[in-house]
């Protein structure tokens, strides 16, 4: 019998890393709804090459083109043959998750919540629908404090465990060097509207002595390139194994999202010793302490972020880098793993 039957969207590297660690302590079976997604920052974002647990992929192809009814039939077959103590769904956004919530006993049902109080409505019809889903859930694994706030707003009465993360980043070895401020800022992620990239493009357009490098692909790329000055560089997709080089070439990481359930790239930046400028709408903003390892900003206030950027010099950068470098991400990951035990 498995301790957990886990159902999640795709085998994203950070989820596989987390499940591999759980598999060292628990017996788990993971259902991946699809093998890949068309919305990603790199070509090797998802893979099952390194899994250390039992799993099944329902659809070989992009998540966006899957056959939902066929997936539900496959899930029904798996539920009939796999014995488990708990079943963990990775959201409430898919018909597959709703099917499981109502076909499995409530006492076994768990939810990994990655939605925050900012981007997920808890009022009106949408809030009512979420409450119906939660009525079938006994335990919620909330990624952070903003996610817990959503549960409180929805008046969830079950057990809540805060995991402090949505997965585990890759941690390659690298050589640490002391940085001098060269005015180089970095963004990594999808190039879509909710990432608020037009906001920072306009800021850097007005500051030609600073450089912004944007890594990723998405529907807004062509538009943003058309309005960007020469100090803004679009790199396209970069493989995960080369991300360390990108962090090393830059001084500060910036994540300006209007909606960001977590923002795992914030953890990656801290791991590689970069201070982070992060929107207060990002779940992982709780990892950033103002003036210590970065700054948290209002993603609608250009003047505030502009002033933060202009204040950077060698001294500030080195102080922030020192604190970012000392951030104990391994301790955070141990806490995340322990929440499931």
TrEMBL record:
GO terms for molecular function: glycosyltransferase activity. InterPro entries: Glyco_trans_1, Glycosyltransferase_grp1. Pfam families: Glycos_transf_1 (PF00534). Residues 184-311 form the Glycosyl transferase family domain. This is Glycosyltransferase family 4 protein. It comes from Campylobacter concisus.
